[in-house]
């Protein structure tokens, strides 16, 4: 692995601003030129040139995530104001073009269901079979061993090739999150027990009560108290995934907190605005117990149908996350 120096030069495009351009009347001439001696130029590092050869090089994603770096020509200083204006203008121009480019690439939706097996799991399992979509379940071992019925529901998930089973801890922190995370080794052991007892094949976890992401080059922590546990898991080969959008339905009544239309619109906005953790990838969080009631189950079917009829989003396993273009 080549980390460090190489990454620094490889990230995004470096924008050179030469001052001659602005000092002549302060105009916003933004034409790209071919060398740093010219007004503005976009320099590609050798690493990026290599990247473009690969199938999905991730270059657009890099450009989207990394702000354009502005390097001033110190021999010809210009006013801070002019630089700031130019920087804003250039960033917007580049973001717009990257967004258009990303829009032409495939888009990926990840349905994730937490806390199963629970009442609702069986219905989820049969709905995904009927619609033939891939889903992800983050399982709690304790629930699987609470009754014969739930054990069967776990087994149903486990045997369904459209469902991938991941780790949401054995005890779900007994819903005492701060206490649970105050002992990272204890919490880590709880995840390991879950992995063994549920025979989980993938080192992919979601932390109970925390929207934390640690994978590849990403580390995002929502609440600091979970960070120690998340880091320990990551160091031991796990990927930690949070979510972009959450859908809530009252489990007992099937009454939605957000209607199908609302949640569908939200997903579309995230996809179009590239405001999810990874552009063109949106992770939706739901909970198994939302679908214990017929009404709730109809809403799930309706959301899937709406997405399938109106978009070309691909339903994916978290194992494949993220697709970077
Ligand atoms: Zn949970």
From TrEMBL:
Annotated Pfam families: Polysacc_deac_1
Domain annotation NodB homology: ranges:
104-175
| Protein's organism | Sphingobacterium griseoflavum
Q: Show the InterPro entries listed in the entry.
A: Glyco_hydro/deAcase_b/a-brl, NODB_dom
Q: Which domain of life is it from?
A: Bacteria
Q: What is this protein called?
A: NodB homology domain-containing protein
